[in-house]
């Protein structure tokens, strides 16, 4: 029997790795993958706490998070393809046309 | 160490190493492949947590559909030939890692404080394994959570339409 805190700590570290990816990497696709990492970290704590509390609501939330993630990936990758079509790059530092 | 403990620690090590590789590796294709490994090992953790349905969905939706989409786009954009441009903001890495460490400390202190509490539900392990994990989730999904379920289908429809509109050259 693994204690709940182990899962939560693993989830926290996984989330932090995702945050580092978003803040440090400049490739839009890798930033996107880091967002997926963060979503998965949250899913892990949902499932762990759901087991801890003898409830299935957390697992149903994971189902909805996955739905939102799938929708997000479909739209986000379409945006990235459009960016590449217009600017010939996916480096987010060079995509600054809306910057003041 | 028990068998469960052995599996937990080995799968957790794979999850962490492959997640770090996603961020560290230079080639986006390699990042995507280690992300697949992360998703697969997370499915293993879900099985350890007695969430077999979520584990199956994780493999099918994340490691299957979403990652195929990622690899497809990377292949389409031909990114591995992208030239390496210099860092525009030299302090970015240091600040990013500092913020992340702060976040990790904050999250860790929440876990260490043990402030997570809540009322126990009715779905104990024995009860769920008697009717089956998938059946139990389906029963909840089509009774208590039926409105969010329908809204999720509308969201997916909107995403399909949005993806087509965005990726069409001209309408």
Profile the largest sheet of chain B: none
Number of helices of chain B: 7
Give the SSE order of chain B as H and E letters: HHHHHHH
Determine the most extensive contact between two protein chains: A-B, 70 and 84 residues
Kindly name the structural category of chain A. mainly alpha
Distance between the termini of chain A: 54 Å
- Encode the helix/strand succession of chain A as letters: HHH
Computed over alpha carbons, the radius of gyration of chain B is: 21 Å
Q: Quick check: average pLDDT of chain B?
A: 88
Determine and state the CATH class of chain A: Mainly Alpha
Give the amount of beta strand of chain B, in percent.
Answer: under 5%
Q: What is the quaternary state of this protein?
A: heterodimer
Query: Please, how many helices of chain A?
Result: 3
Strand content of chain A: under 5%
The coarse overall form of chain B would be globular
CATH fold group of chain A:
Helix Hairpins
Can you put this structure into words, describing what you see?
The complex is a heterodimer of chains A (100) and B (171). Chain A is 77% helix and 0% strand. Chain A contains 3 helices and no strands. Chain A has helices at residues 4-24, 28-52, 57-87. The termini of chain A are far apart. Chain B has 171 residues and is mainly α. Chain B has helices at residues 3-24, 28-48, 52-77, 92-113, 125-131, 133-141, 146-167. In chain B, helix 1 (3-24) packs antiparallel against helix 2 and helix 2 packs antiparallel against helix 3 (52-77). The longest helix of chain B has 26 residues, at 52-77. The radius of gyration of chain B is 21 Å and the shape is globular. The chains are: A mainly alpha (100), B mainly alpha (171).
